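WARN retry 2 of 3 for item q-0093 after timeout on previous attempt; input resubmitted unchanged.
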Amino acid sequence: MSDQKKLSWKKMARNGIFALVFVCLIVFLIFESISTGKKSPETKNTVTLNLVYAYQNAQWHQGIQTIAEAFMQENEEIHINTQVQYEDKVYEDVLYKLQARDELGDIVQLKTPERYAREGLLTPIDDRFGELLEGYATYEDKIYGVEAIGSASGIVYNRAIFEKYGLSEPKDYGEFLHICDILKNHGVTPVGIAGGDLWHMEFWVNHFLHTDILYKDPDWLQKRGADSVHWTDPEPLAMLAHLKQLFDNGYVNEDWAVMKDGNLSYAMSQGEMAMIYTGSWTARELQKQGDGISLGWFFVPDEEGNVIISQNQDVYWSLTKACGADPEKYAAAISFLEYFYSPEVYAVLCQDTYGFPVTKEKADYTETDIQLEIKNEFCTEDTHISDYIGNDDTPQGFEKSMLKLIQTMAAGETTIKATAQQLDELWTLSGISEGNR
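OK item q-0093 returned
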């Protein structure tokens, strides 16, 4: 046989072997697909949900990520695309931008579901969640938001520092200021504030809103909307004066304007400050960062000794109109919410975030000493106020601009009266702008 013929036969044999291997591979893949009863990736039907939420704190962020991943493991046909939003501005400002870009997602965390429902951006949530939960938001007798978790805002403090200087929890606001004086005189920063995150300013702003204004007139924000009260009235002026006093007296960390909320826990765990006005979740972060740190909690009383508890009711899950327009997405979203509130899953979230359960069937979990202390302080007959700057009675965009003005006032760049006048004008302009949308 000639050399040319030998090469031809070798080539044919090699090609035949490749063809045989290829056919065997195809047969194997088909057999494997049939034997396992699974669809191939090309034919598998997967529903993708975009879940938009705020990075409120490390515990909340980790909790949502963990729940989403566990849900997908149990529901392989549903994919959760989590989209965490974190900026130094307020969360509502982020949502406005997402809304303008038509990127609110399918499941979205909201502070004011009623506002978005009025604007036709949401779809109603199954009524059975009203039987499952203590808290939900309605519009025209339909549920448009389900409360995700409860929490409170107050003072978390380092017990060791208080004991060192013989301090105890204040019975009125005058005693609180006296505590601040003693700490300052001993070279300890009394109060940590994170002005580097604009939204952090809400804690003290809403506290004095509660003690100086809403405790005396619960409908004040609605009345301001009706133009029957003003920010230049005596009560708001007292609120601004109390805010400015903290900064003018040197009770606040010197780097407050650039300090980030996420760094406050570390600074306090290192003994750099004695107190932080914050959410209950921060106690959890402090315990993680401060080895063996002993914490206490109290709600700051007003000048007469009245305790007004700042109750946070501003974390809701809502389903967007786009989600409601797709039956498969809507069904998948409802499945996720059911999983989120399931007793075992929800209990872990409440435990890890130091949050308060909002399900009627109470979550069963072990609480730390400080967690129990916060809950016991919260569950009293003292006045609870949940209204806040940025709620549904506040014009859109007012919250962010107000907090910026407060920072300017705190830095000594404007007076109390000038700030009050600017707030009044800002409220009116924001209301006009909202009405023209």
